[in-house]
Structures are given as C-alpha cells and as structure tokens.
Amino acid sequence: MVMTTKEMLHIVQSQLAIDLNCTIDDLNGENDSIIFVEAKVNTGCRPFRRKARYFEIVSMGKSIVVSATPERLLIAKTQMQGKDRDAIFSLPFIRGLYVHYLPDLERIKPIFPPENFSFELIEKDRNLGLASYLVNKLTFKIVELGDIPSYDVIASNLASQRVAQRSGYFPGWVSDWRCNFERLETLPFN
Q1: For the chain, domain boundaries
Q2: Residue 31 has what pLDDT?
Q3: Which of 41, 77, 112, 167 has the least CB density, counted as fewest CB within 10 Å?
Q4: What is the pLDDT of residues 159-181, one digit of tens each?
Q5: At what angle are helices 130-144 and 158-166 packed, to 10 degrees?
C-alpha cells in the first residue's frame, strides 16, 4: 500500500480522535485554542491501559486537546484557562513530553549502512549513523506492509530526535509523558 503524507496524517488524526474522544477538527483548531473532552473508550480505540483517573494532552501544532476523566478535566480547565501553549505545557503537573515523529513519505530516502559497522555497538562505533540506518530501513518495511510507523521520543532526548530527523521523520504531535496530580486531586490515590 502506497500512501501520501497527507493520507497518513488523516489516518493518524482519525485514530487520535477516536483515542481522545474528540474530532479531527478539534486537532486542527485555531492556534492556542484548548479543547476539553471527557475521556471515553470508543470503538476502535487503541488498547492502551487507562487507569480510573486518566489525563492526556495532545497538540498537533495549533490547538491543544485535553482528554481526561471528570475530576482531572475540571483541574485541567481551572489550571489552563487563559494560558498560552508554552504556559500550558509547562504546568507543574505535566512532568514531561513525548514528541511523536512520522515519516515524511514524499521525502524519505533509503540510508545506506555506515562503513565497517558491526552489531556489537561499542563506544568507538557510536555516532556513525547506525541508529538512523536501522530506523530508516525498518520504516520502509513497515510502510511496505501498509502500516504507519511512528518514532516516539521524550522531548529532552535530542540525540534521539536527531536520529528521527536523519531517518526521514518530522514531528507529528506532542503529548504528555507523565503527569502528577497528587496535590491537585481531592480524592486520595489508590
């Protein structure tokens, strides 16, 4: 199956909309608009484990979608209203961000393995392009199977982000990595 980057983005946005209980239009809303939706396990939702108290924040570049269980949704609304994107993603209960990369299907080109590399990666073999080569090679295989690969990295891991970019990926969306509502919730933790 050959698809374009535009088709891939539509598939990704459709899946995120199902997972977050929002719409594709919500994901593409106006700059810095915040869409709050109550979390719900919809038909077709990816099988990620959700706890009784759930929170996820996602942005694909313009709007911000917050999907959460009722108590956490109320906390998020209280903490986020009137703030800009940077202030929202810097709130103290958001403890890290993932950057989710997608392959640029129109521009990605095969990468050749570095000369004289071995699979026993030792310190002298680092930074020769092996990781980029392997990610790139695997990307072509996954796309060939008709699936959509993503490369997810914690925002502070710049080396891994460089691997994604050298491998032919671009930032697709950002989401929370870990949250801590301990001092904000009224009910005790389980």
Answers
A1: 5-100, 101-173
A2: 80
A3: 112
A4: 999 999 999 999 999 999 888 88
A5: 50
